[in-house]
């Protein structure tokens, strides 16, 4: 048995219950890891609330880092004592867990455990957004919503290191200053300004090449007004609600626009793609191109408080749980 956070019935943050959870021994192709840090992400709140249905009971959480303490049959690439991380594998909110060895990513020296836990899912998301969904060129301009959030801080720094012009949106003065210090050339406070009008001003009427939007319903349609003709709208999250596009003709009227809704499952289908993205992320962090901001740390049993803060938009950077 191990300490874990369990959801028996989906709902609000109160649905996260601290209790003993049976882990068991690893089966063929699996490892058991003792976790040292666990990342908290919006997808965790979607799964907890039932927006993304999962059979109950379940242990939420999708990223973490720890040490291999037991291996099942057939595991050859890892050894007892190896430090490994993972992303997009549910079951993270636990002191110990089982993990398929082909999803375990070796962690290089020189990276702090909390830093690693904070960057795997968000950093890998930034990787596929900038390098795969829309391979960003140095001559291009982008708009990134929630630029002071976990994904936003990583993606904006990374995009700036590639030579792109970065425009971000935030919801407060403090977040504006944070975004400017982390890759943004210009920042718009969407609570005080019309971000579509401001984007047109910043781009002298042209519009941006690509919009990256993890906010969803509240920003989607106006974001289309920020794009140049044949630009791409990347909707990768729905923190404010699910996006609905009942009239595809709006894309034609606003400039023959493209829209995509990517997920990591399709960008990291196998170990080769997974390690390619992880190694690019590790290199960006170790080179100093990307700084990982772990601004909020909670104990594992405080997972409900972490969810409340995240959903209330009270956080900046990354949120981490420590078992």
UniProtKB/TrEMBL annotation:
UniProt cross-references to Gene3D superfamilies, sorted A to Z: Medium-chain alcohol dehydrogenases, catalytic domain, NAD(P)-binding Rossmann-like Domain
InterPro entries: ADH-like_C (IPR013149), ADH-like_N (IPR013154), ER (IPR020843), GroES-like_sf (IPR011032), NAD(P)-bd_dom_sf (IPR036291), QOR-like (IPR047618), Quin_OxRdtase/zeta-crystal_CS (IPR002364)
A Pfam family reported for this protein in Swiss-Prot or TrEMBL: ADH_zinc_N
Assigned keywords, A-Z: NADP, Oxidoreductase
Name of this protein: Quinone oxidoreductase
Domain Enoyl reductase (ER): 11-321
């Amino acid at each position: 048995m191990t300490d874990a956070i369990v959801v028996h019935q989906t709902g609000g943050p109160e649905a996260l219950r601290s209790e003993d959870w049976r882990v068991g021994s690893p089966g063929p192709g699996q490892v058991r890891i003792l976790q040292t840090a666990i990342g908290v992400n919006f997808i965790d709140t979607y799964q907890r609330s039932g927006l993304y249905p999962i059979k109950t009971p379940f242990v939420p959480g999708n990223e973490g880092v720890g040490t291999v303490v037991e291996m099942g049959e057939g595991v050859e690439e890892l050894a007892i004592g190896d430090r490994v991380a993972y992303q997009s594998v549910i079951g993270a909110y636990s002191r110990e867990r089982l993990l398929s060895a082909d999803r375990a990513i070796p962690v290089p020296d020189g990276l702090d455990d909390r830093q690693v836990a904070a960057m795997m899912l968000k950093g890998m998301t930034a990787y596929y957004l900038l390098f795969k969904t829309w391979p960003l060129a140095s001559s291009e301009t982008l708009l990134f919503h929630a630029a002071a959030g976990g994904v936003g801080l990583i993606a904006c720094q990374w995009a700036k290191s590639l030579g792109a012009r970065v425009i971000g949106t935030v919801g407060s003065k403090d977040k504006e200053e944070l975004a400017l210090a982390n890759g943004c050339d210009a920042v718009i406070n969407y609570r005080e300004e019309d971000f579509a009008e401001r984007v047109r001003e910043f781009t002298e009427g042209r519009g941006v090449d690509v919009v990256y939007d993890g906010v969803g319903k509240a920003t989607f349609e106006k974001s289309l007004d920020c794009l140049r003709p044949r630009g791409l709208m990347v909707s990768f999250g729905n923190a404010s609600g699910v996006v609905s596009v009942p009239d595809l003709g709006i894309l034609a009227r606003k400039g023959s626009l493209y829209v995509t809704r990517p997920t990591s499952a399709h960008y990291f289908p196998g170990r080769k793609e997974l390690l390619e993205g992880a190694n690019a992320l590790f290199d960006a962090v170790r080179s100093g191109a990307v700084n990982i901001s772990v601004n909020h740390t909670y104990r594992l049993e405080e997972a409900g408080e972490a969810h409340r803060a995240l959903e209330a938009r009270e956080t900046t950077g990354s949120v981490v749980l420590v078992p």
